[in-house]
Amino acid sequence: MKKILLTAAAILAIVVATEAQQAAPANSEITTLHVQGNVYMLQGAGGNVAVQVGDMGVVVVDTGLAQNADKLIAAIRKLSDKPIQYIINTHVHADHTGGNDAVRRAGVTITGANVAGNLTDATQGAQIIAHENVLNRMSAPTGQTASAPFGAWPTITYVTGQNELYFNDEPIEARWQPAAHTDGDSLVIFRRSDVVATGDIFVTTSYPFIDLERGGSIQGEIDALNNILDIAIPKHEEEGGTYIIPGHGRICDEFDVLEFRDMVTIIRDRIQNGIKKGMTLDQIKAAGWTKDYDARWSAKQGFGTADNFVTAVYKSLTVPAKKQ
Amino acid sequence: MRSVFLLGILSGIVYAQSAGAIAPSPGVDLSGNWAPLLHEDFPERIPGPELVNFAGLPVNDAARAFALSWDASRLTLPEHQCQVHVASYIYRGPLQLRIWEERDPQSQRVIAIRQYIQNYEQNRTIWMDGRPHPPEGAVHTWMGFSTGKWEGNILTVYTTHMKDGWVRRNGLPVSDQATLIEHFIRHGNIFTHVSIVTDPNYLTEPLIKTQDFNLIIPEGQNWVYPCSPVVEIQRPRGAVPHYLPGENPFLHEFADKFKIPLEAALGGAETMYPEYQTKLKAAAAKR
């Protein structure tokens, strides 16, 4: 009986988590914007999607919500009829990985003839690259229910540092950002196009969502934002140069990330100071220390509200981080 | 010969129709080299505003809280050193301004009015060809995306997609969701620039400012603004200078110096209007 209850609770938790992620806004139409070089930003599938196109094929960074996958694939096909060979996931949430299975099946893996000859399904579907913690959170041990279907799971994972790929005459890095938005965040860096896809480490639509349940932390979030600032180089007077594709919202450059980093750091400092003075979470919330940023950054509902952000920062600063 | 003649007439009709798609210029030309006349709001524009002088601006509580947290040392961070005044503010500074028209080579209609602003070496384009503003997801820039039209002899410009900036350079912010309406009004060798900033996040009502410019001969001025950031102060990685809530050491400085109530120094729409002087005098009389 206890086992049944635990299983039911686990399934419920997965369902709640999945639905919560899917509550992220999804527009009905996909908007395509050229960012720079070979890279485009597609909006409207859930989280932002970055697409790199070239003679060799297509790389897709994140795949939106599952229900928008067909529209996403159609939008990608308008950019290129070359094979989708790689998907890179910036993190595990369903508004960024929900379309994995469908986009993977729309793609192909190029293999040597001897491999394809022996393994008839070896060429079916694109490869999915992500940090190993993304795979761990999408899959489950034998006998347990996974949070995502098998076809959506990453097929190439890395455990530390970065994953490197050279595709369409361009070096592409997926660089792990430990314990930031989640415990499996990657910055995806297109080094020739000079574009960085950040996943939800950086968004322009709300406060950051620090997913403590999935290994995120405020210090990791700030570290990751500082890493983006280290990577980005503006072209002229703190404008242009390296372009940034946020997890949600508009195309940005270094200065936009800078303003966001400043905000997150300042609010962290305020809350940390309150904790040092012995204030409770409720007292800190009542102090209104995000008043200067709320109108611009607090989501009306969902993950990016001021209340959620302050709670996450407080807990992240007071509860020891989970071991990764 | 007859067919050539007809083709010529038809071409003329097509040209006339396509040319009509663009609003014609009224004969006013803003082209030239200009420099600001700095008599208006001089103390704020050239020496620079006093800290915690927010008076005369329609700022809300959020803007006030932002500015009270703002520490000028933030501008020493390398990424902040070369940050530009946004289009809604840049004309208030000392600068040289060059304006010229870009014309369609065939129709000679004005496609755009271009500006080079010496301060921070900014290039600004005001599109006059009726094109739409970019989608929400497009990048924001210091100068934003501008479209213009002639309203009589006044050039009216609408700008979106600007970056974060400020309405006064002592920390009072303007957000990246602000929009700007401008009027360029020429009177011979002078033109008046009117800017109307609307910001849903930090202003309770539109902020209207005017600046005058004088036609100049482009000799002897500085037309460049190179900026290369360097580490000026060694700090821990990621440190952001700011004042914690209630700890701004300059809160009373401006108010005490000019013997005005702190409430007036903290600004707000009410402090923009002449009636506020009466209110202040009445309050002072009671004390």
Would you write up a description of this structure?
- The complex is a heterodimer of chains A (324) and B (287).
- With 324 residues, chain A is of the alpha/beta class.
- Chain A has a single domain (2-259), classed as Ribonuclease Z/Hydroxyacylglutathione hydrolase-like (Metallo-beta-lactamase, Chain A, 4-Layer Sandwich), CATH 3.60.15.10.
- Mean pLDDT of chain A is 90; it is low at 1-27.
- The radius of gyration of chain A is 20 Å and the shape is globular.
- Chain A has eleven helices and twelve strands.
- Chain B is α+β, with helices and mostly antiparallel strands and 287 residues long.
- Chain B has a domain at 32-50 and 75-215: Lipocalin (Beta Barrel), CATH 2.40.128.
- In chain B, 21% of the residues lie in helices and 26% in strands.
- Chain B is built from eight helices and eleven strands.
- In chain B, the strands form two sheets. Chain B has a nine-stranded mixed β-barrel.
- Chain B starts with a helix and ends with a helix.
- Chains A and B meet through α7, α8 and α10 of A and α3 of B.
Overview features:
heterodimer, A: 324 residues, alpha/beta, Metallo-beta-lactamase, Chain A, five-stranded mixed β-sheet, B: alpha+beta, Lipocalin, nine-stranded mixed barrel, two-stranded antiparallel ribbon, 8 helices, 21% helix
Uncertain spans of chain B, ≥5 residues at pLDDT below 50?
1-20
Derived structural class of chain A:
alpha/beta
End-to-end distance of chain A, in Å?
A: 31 Å
Q: What order do the helices and strands of chain B follow?
A: HEHHHHEEEEEEEEEEHHH
Order of neighbouring strands in the sheet with most strands of chain B: 1-2-3-4-5-6-9-10-11
| CATH homology superfamily name of chain A | Ribonuclease Z/Hydroxyacylglutathione hydrolase-like
- Rg of chain A, nearest Å: 20 Å
Poorly predicted ranges of chain A = 1-27
Count of helical regions of chain B: 8
Written as H for each helix and E for each strand, in order along the chain, the element string of chain A is HEEEEHEHHHEHEEEEEHEHHHH
Q: Which fold name fills CATH's third level, the topology of the domain at 32-50 and 75-215 in chain B?
A: Lipocalin
Q: Strand share of the residues of chain A?
A: 15-25%
Give the overall average pLDDT of chain A.
Answer: 90
As a percent range, the share of helical residues of chain B equals 10-25%
The CATH topology name of chain A reads Metallo-beta-lactamase, Chain A
- The number of E-state strands of chain B comes to 11
Largest protein interface, residues of each chain: A-B, 42 and 41 residues
